[in-house]
């Protein structure tokens, strides 16, 4: 294990508890059952308790926050597939790497902000190296080769993670400056750090949209997504463009993992969990569409949050039911080609 990587056993959050932040005096997070009771305006003891409108507002905020995180991961995924034509099953592994970097670097430096400032460039550099060594040889090959390579990459990253940080579950402390809560009622509050996650993700989304719509790099990205062969004929360095796009996608995934680390446990399987949901977001929004990734992430974030709270036994099915409905209506996704 790397120096400074401490063992910190912490139980993995439940699907509902991961995003539920209805709190009581004393600061402990409520379970899915008490959250569901709050939404029905009935306290856990059977008496009428918290105001339903505030409880719904909390869950909406949770869903939007989760949606923003999904957008960061899914936007990189849809860029890589839509522009480079590469099926990157290892995308979730880089989300996991970002979370572990946040854990390790914050332990070594003592600063979560410094961990992000150091970790994001490391992740982007890692993405550039992986693209040059492996993906550059797969662009003109069948998707089966890409799937096999990225599956092998998942195994390699998993083994390296086990060597460097072990297989234990870790926790990342919320920065003291963001550790407070916004009081909503006498019995309910909302963590400031979750609001910070939404703001940080929104800022990243605005910067990404500005880059794609207003810069020369964005023009080349949009042109490559529309007609890759014509871009090559015009003399643009497509190989360099692909390297930049891949590094950007990996950086977004790693950044999402870093800022998500303090609100969820850092554990070996977290990349697989986010990858599956991110593919659902890409399919719903439309492959290659950043706008589609955004709105798809918002839909899935809200569906997953309310599904986990209102239907604890079948919350995960809500996400896939939503995907089925969208594809039945628009088979290519909501914003395909946009």
Automatic annotation (TrEMBL):
Alphabetized GO MF terms: transmembrane transporter activity
Principal localisation: membrane
GO cellular component, one term: plasma membrane
Membrane topology field: Multi-pass membrane protein
Membrane-traversing stretches: 66-90, 102-131, 143-164, 192-212, 241-262, 274-297, 309-329
GO biological process: amino acid transport
Intracellular or extracellular location(s): Cell membrane
InterPro entries membership: ABC_transp_permease, BCAA_transport_permease
Keyword annotations: Amino-acid transport, Cell membrane, Membrane, Transmembrane, Transmembrane helix, Transport
Family: Belongs to the binding-protein-dependent transport system permease family. LivHM subfamily.
Protein name (record): High-affinity branched-chain amino acid transport system permease protein LivH
Lineage, broadest ranks: Bacteria, Pseudomonadati, Pseudomonadota, Alphaproteobacteria, Hyphomicrobiales
């Amino acid at each position: 294990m790397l120096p400074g990587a401490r063992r910190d056993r912490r139980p993995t959050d439940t699907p509902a508890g991961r995003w539920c932040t209805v709190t009581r005096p004393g600061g402990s997070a409520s379970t899915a059952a008490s959250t569901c009771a709050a939404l029905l305006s009935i306290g856990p003891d059977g008496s009428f308790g918290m105001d339903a409108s505030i409880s719904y507002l909390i869950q909406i905020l949770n869903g939007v926050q989760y949606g923003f995180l999904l957008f960061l991961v899914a936007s990189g995924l849809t860029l890589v597939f839509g522009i480079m034509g590469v099926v990157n099953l290892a995308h979730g592994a880089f989300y996991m790497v970002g979370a572990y970097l946040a854990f390790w670097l914050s332990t070594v430096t003592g600063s979560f902000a410094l961990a992000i400032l150091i970790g994001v460039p490391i992740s982007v550099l890692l993405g550039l190296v992986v693209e040059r060594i492996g993906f550059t040889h797969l662009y003109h090959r069948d998707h089966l080769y890409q799937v096999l390579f990225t599956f092998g990459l998942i195994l390699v990253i998993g083994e390296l993670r086990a060597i460097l940080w072990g297989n234990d579950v870790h926790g990342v402390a919320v920065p003291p400056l963001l550790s407070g809560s916004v009081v909503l009622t006498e019995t309910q509050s909302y963590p400031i750090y979750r609001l910070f996650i939404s703001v940080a993700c929104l800022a990243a989304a605005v910067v990404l949209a500005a880059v794609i719509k207003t810069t020369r790099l964005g023009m080349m990205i949009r042109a490559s997504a529309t007609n890759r062969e014509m871009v090559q004929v015009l003399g643009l360095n497509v190989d360099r463009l692909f390297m930049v796009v891949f590094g950007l996608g990996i950086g977004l995934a790693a950044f999402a993992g870093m800022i998500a680390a303090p609100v969820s446990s850092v554990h070996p399987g977290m990349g697989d969990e986010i990858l599956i949901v991110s593919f659902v977001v890409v399919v719903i929004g439309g492959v290659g569409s950043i706008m589609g990734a955004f709105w798809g992430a918002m839909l899935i974030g809200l569906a997953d949050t309310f599904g986990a709270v209102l239907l604890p036994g079948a919350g995960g099915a809500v996400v896939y039911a939503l995907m089925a409905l969208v594809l039945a209506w628009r088979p290519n996704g909501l914003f395909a080609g946009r």
